[in-house]
Amino acid sequence: HEAHHIIQDCLEGTPTDGELVTLFRTDSSDHKDFVVRNLPQEQIQRIIQSYSSRGAHTVLLELEAFAVAASVDASRITVGLNRACDL
Prior knowledge:
Elements: H1 2-10, H2 29-38, H3 41-51, H4 56-71, H5 74-84
Helix pairs in contact: 1-4, 1-5, 2-4, 3-4
């Protein structure tokens, strides 16, 4: 989960600048489909409720990070981290 947040940070600007973006374009159905396919509806609702006070962008970032953590093995996340952060 946290490794995916680092990937989200590296995709925009520079690492550790706090400018996070989703891996999936949020204006497409890909983001929603990925989240719905990989997280139970109850967890999606809990994430939305827990992070809604931080804004819609944060909710989308968190949904994506939780879905990645639930569905992508650690070695693939490591590859993504190395690519996104140019390590």
